[in-house]
Design the sequence.
């Protein structure tokens, strides 16, 4: 089944078309955001944002409060026009079009359902504006209720549903007219943790099934990492990095990204010739960094990337990038141990390291125990200082 859009472009098919990462790579840009600026008076909420989103892709805008996520989403929706720059959707310049002439469905943090309309009528709302025959609307509503797992709930009113159920209805309403683009602004943040995790899966599955190009705004890194094909990390109105969840997590382009997504130990360090860096009283090899010899840098490493070894257990020569430390504190966090480590090589700095339950048992780790830790060269992240 195919529908026509308001703008007369072909709509996405409603049948299943599972989208794989590989197939996404060959898709052309469906949404093109080029050099977009947004000013509120003297304040620039968006500064020269450029971004291509491929057809069928699930993209998250992730960043701290006030970084411009909603502002960018509202520009894409035409709810608040950009000050400069252009937005193309499906090859068409939509930069100056009002929302009614754009092709998207949107879900907000607050469910924003019409309280005086039944669930079925809420979902049918957009369809009724397209003047389709009653029978077609009814069957589409039934199909959508089933799709979001709420068949038989059509005659209830929004107040009779839980928050999670209401957000599913908001989702059904947003996809009812098979929009080319699905926009979600923190759709899960008003829900409690369990419902949130559950709905995360449901939304992702639904998006895959429909193959609808989707942008979701979130400030929850876990949500972005688990749902997005690509994450756009924003800060102060600029894009810090665009990449897949693993790229962003494993290879954060800036110290901000390393810090905002996941956790990172940070040490003031000095770059050394080639692929090396020195901090505390030790020197470490790392991946090629391109800084001058002696340049002030920040060396960062994630707590889970620190590898524990029994003290004096490494043969001479096998001990590269290792230092001897003592466990000052050990905190049980359920699935792993978080430790605070100190040692001569670290000077006054503390190294936070996460060790698996198994490693802790195998090495009999407790507070006061000495061990050797390895900071793998490829996991040491080097950034300019003061950036
Ligand atoms: N209508 C407006 N007038 C003036 N300033 C605004 C307006 N809308 C947003 N801003 C400012 O623009 C910046 C970006 O706001 P935006 O709502 O896009 O942030 P956000 O990333 O969505 O944050 P949050 O995670 O808190 O929703 C903020 O500093 C905000 O105060
Ligand atoms: Mg927002």
Sequence:
């Amino acid at each position: 089944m195919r529908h026509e859009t308001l703008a007369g472009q072909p709509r996405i098919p409603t049948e299943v078309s599972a989208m794989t990462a590989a197939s996404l790579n060959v898709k052309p840009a469906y949404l093109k955001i080029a050099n977009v600026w947004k000013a509120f008076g003297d304040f620039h909420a968006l500064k020269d944002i450029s971004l291509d989103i491929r057809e069928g892709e699930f993209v998250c805008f992730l960043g701290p409060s006030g970084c411009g996520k909603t502002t960018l989403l509202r520009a894409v929706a035409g709810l608040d026009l950009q000050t400069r720059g252009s937005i193309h959707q499906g090859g068409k310049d939509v930069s100056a079009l009002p929302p009614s002439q754009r092709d998207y469905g949107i879900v907000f943090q607050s469910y924003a359902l019409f309280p005086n309309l039944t669930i079925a009528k809420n979902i049918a709302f957009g369809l009724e504006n397209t003047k389709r025959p009653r029978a077609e609307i009814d069957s589409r509503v039934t199909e959508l209720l089933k799709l979001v797992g709420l068949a038989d709930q059509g005659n209830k009113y929004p107040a009779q549903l839980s928050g999670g159920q209401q957000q599913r209805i908001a989702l059904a309403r947003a996809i009812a007219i098979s929009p080319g683009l699905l926009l979600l602004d923190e759709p899960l943040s008003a829900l409690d943790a369990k419902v949130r995790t559950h709905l995360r899966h449901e939304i992702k599955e639904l998006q895959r099934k429909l193959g609808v190009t989707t942008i979701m705004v979130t400030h929850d890194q876990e949500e972005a990492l688990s749902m997005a094909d690509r994450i756009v990390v924003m800060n102060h109105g600029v894009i810090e990095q665009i990449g897949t969840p693993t790229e962003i997590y494993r290879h954060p382009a800036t110290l901000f990204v390393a810090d905002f997504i996941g956790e990172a130990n940070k040490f003031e360090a000095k770059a050394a010739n080639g692929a090396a860096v020195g901090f505390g009283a030790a020197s470490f090899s790392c991946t090629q960094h391109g800084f001058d010899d002696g340049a002030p840098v920040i060396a960062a490493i994630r707590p889970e990337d620190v590898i524990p070894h029994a003290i004096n257990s490494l043969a001479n020569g096998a001990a590269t990038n290792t230092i001897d430390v003592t466990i000052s504190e050990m905190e049980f966090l359920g699935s792993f141990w978080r430790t605070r480590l100190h040692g001569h090589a670290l000077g006054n700095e503390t190294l936070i390291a996460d060790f698996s339950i198994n490693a802790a048992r195998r090495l009999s780790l407790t507070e006061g125990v000495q061990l050797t830790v390895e900071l793998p060269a490829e996991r040491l992240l080097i950034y300019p200082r003061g950036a």
Q: What stands out?
A: The first helix runs from residue 21 to 25.
